[in-house]
Design goal:
Layout: H1 37-47, E1 55-63, E2 66-72, E3 82-83, H2 87-101, H3 126-130, H4 150-155, H5 162-167, H6 183-197, H7 200-213, E4 222-223, E5 237-239, H8 241-252, E6 256-257, E7 260-261, H9 265-271, E8 276-277, E9 282-283, E10 288-289, E11 297-301, E12 305-310, E13 315-322, H10 329-341
Antiparallel strand pairs: 1-2, 1-13, 3-5, 4-5, 6-7, 8-9, 9-10, 10-11, 11-12, 12-13
Helix pairs in contact: 1-10, 2-6, 6-7
């Protein structure tokens, strides 16, 4: 299914679910919160931010398959749905992997986008879309509506058919030659998923529930679809914090849940194999890695949403809240220090 060059060498192994810890399909098994002043200090710093750094709605820590810390604030609770923002991109990667496993999509063939049939864009593959290396023009600006492509795609001209809006963008680099993070790329993929599955939004929702969410106990997932029936996988999936943690555990366990393969293990390895790596960022296939620790991988979203998977610690940490990007770094410093303590 995956060519050897698609997976990085020497990826750290992913931990298995401990034999004496039940899978959290129905309920999360509970573990002891560490009796450690440093652990308490870091969780407190994340949960009780200075007002100018925004708010943390939820912080969950999973260690060895058990929920060992859980905190909600600012009106949130265990049942309060939270926004994924771009963490939905990682869910899109999982849905794509299921179709590739089923033989319904070819990762390395030209992407099935009819608008590209008669120009150079016809060479763009699904692999390049997942790796944000399509070469298409797209300005990922969340503030300047005059310059942004993402704002009109989600809120104005493109809102009724997000995949078609993004697919209309011209090629500015040869496919595969240039990395550029683009929400439009994900919605092109989501249009491909919709057309492959069939049945419009209802067919897509049924597929998402039957093949991904229900088998791992995710009951709250609420995806948003545009008017054309495309899942807006760039940005819009609501779920409870515990359900976001279940999705993280699926990937930490290599794509298998309680004996059932949801996505293949090499698909998870593909997600966490770096495509782009600089001092500031590291990206695989619709999943991020820490630049300083690329063995740690995460789903990330606007305003500081994160599902962090730490294989060496057998840990998943979920942080959901609202913190501007220019003020988020101290939150991540505490989050990473927290992971090191596990």
């Amino acid at each position: 299914m995956l060519k050897p060059h698609s997976i990085a060498a020497n990826l750290p192994p992913l931990p298995q679910q401990p034999a004496d810890v039940p899978w959290p399909t129905e309920h999360w098994p509970r573990g002891e919160t560490p009796d450690d002043p440093e652990f308490a200090a870091h969780t407190d710093a994340i949960c009780n931010l200075d007002p100018d750094r925004g708010v943390t709605y939820a912080l969950l820590v999973i260690a060895n398959g058990a929920l060992i810390f859980e905190h909600y604030g600012h009106g949130a609770s265990a049942f309060y749905l939270q926004y994924s923002w771009s963490m939905a991109k990682s869910v899109t990667q999982a849905l794509t992997g299921i179709l590739v496993r089923q033989g319904r999509l070819d990762l390395y063939a030209p992407a099935p986008v009819p608008e590209w049939a008669n120009d150079a864009r016809r060479e763009i593959t699904l692999d390049q879309l997942l790796r944000m290396s399509s070469g298409l023009a797209f300005n990922e600006d969340y503030v300047d509506g005059q310059q942004s492509d993402v704002i009109p795609m989600l809120q104005f001209d493109g809102r009724h058919d997000t995949g078609t809006f993004a697919a209309a963008k011209p090629l500015v680099y040869a496919p595969g030659s240039h990395w550029s993070y683009a929400s439009g790329t994900t919605n092109i993929i989501c249009r491909i998923l919709k057309e492959t599955i069939g049945g419009g939004a209802s067919g897509m929702l049924r597929f998402m529930n039957d093949e991904l969410f229900e088998p791992i106990g995710v009951r709250s997932a609420t995806p948003k679809f545009d008017t054309s029936g495309t899942f807006i996988g760039s940005s819009f999936l609501l779920a409870t914090p515990q359900d976001f943690a279940r999705f993280g555990l699926l990937y930490l366990r290599g794509g298998t849940w309680d004996g059932r393969e949801i996505v293949p293990a090499d698909w998870v390895d593909y997600a966490r194999s770096p495509t782009h790596h600089s001092e500031l960022e590291c990206y695989g296939a619709h999943w991020w890695m820490r630049p300083q620790r690329p063995d740690w991988f995460y789903a990330g979203g606007y305003d500081g949403q994160r599902i962090l998977c730490v294989p060496e610690k057998d840990a998943v940490i979920v942080r959901l809240g609202r913190t501007p990007v220019e003020k988020i770094e101290p939150v991540w410093e505490h989050l990473h220090a927290l992971a090191e303590l596990l």
